[in-house]
From TrEMBL:
Domain of life: Eukaryota
Designated gene of the protein: MED20
Database matches in InterPro entries: Mediator_Med20
Organism for this UniProt entry: Solanum lycopersicum
Entry GO MF terms: transcription coactivator activity
Location relative to the cell: Nucleus
Name by which UniProt lists this protein: Mediator of RNA polymerase II transcription subunit 20
Annotated Gene Ontology cellular component terms: mediator complex
Family as reported in the entry's similarity comment: Belongs to the Mediator complex subunit 20 family.
GO BP annotation list: regulation of transcription by RNA polymerase II
Keyword Transmembrane helix: no
Pfam family, one: Med20
Length: 169
């Protein structure tokens, strides 16, 4: 389960007005993505409770991503649905793919780009509702290195969920 909260500041001041809070599966960490400031902050999972108690931010758009993980040769594929927690509304389907032998974003990007073009073309031939969105955030804008980490995952999900919340409003 991946749990995301789009948080909005309760009282206007010099602090960031919006950010995404994320808890990733099997990690005792809480990540905060401040997109406008291009910053990813990593904290212990108790940070979410602290922020709730401070009441300086309120949850604007709680989402939950759950699904399944598959291993296909050298690839790890995660497919899941994104559901708005309070209403159970399906917001989208997310597919995350990882090429396990390579942890370098730049090196694996060439292989992944080809795969996503084939996938997009294949899905385009089907009469499925919705549309395929390939998100490629600029990790260097967030000060992230070429070696893929959990922070990279949070940046990707922040980009995807920002699109989903924009379309939902």
């Amino acid at each position: 389960m991946i749990f995301f909260l789009l948080l909005e500041q309760a009282n206007a001041s010099e602090f960031p007005q919006h950010f995404l809070g994320a808890s990733l599966q099997k990690q005792n960490k809480f990540y905060m993505a401040l997109s406008r400031q291009r910053l990813i902050v990593e904290a212990q999972s108790s940070m979410q409770t602290i922020m709730d108690n401070l009441q300086s931010y309120r949850i604007k758009f709680p989402l939950n991503c759950e699904g399944f993980k598959y291993r296909l040769g050298d690839f790890r594929v995660r497919v899941g649905k994104v559901v708005q927690i309070n209403f159970g509304n399906l917001r989208g389907i997310v597919m995350e793919m990882e090429y396990l032998p390579i942890s370098s974003w730049k090196t694996s990007h060439l292989i992944m780009s080809e795969f996503f073009e084939i996938l997009k073309e294949t899905l385009g031939k089907k009469s499925l509702p919705g549309h395929f969105v390939h998100v490629e955030p600029n990790f260097s804008e967030f000060g992230l290195s070429d070696q893929y980490t959990s922070r990279h995952t949070v940046v990707q999900y922040a980009s995807i969920l920002a699109q989903m919340t924009t379309m939902a409003q």
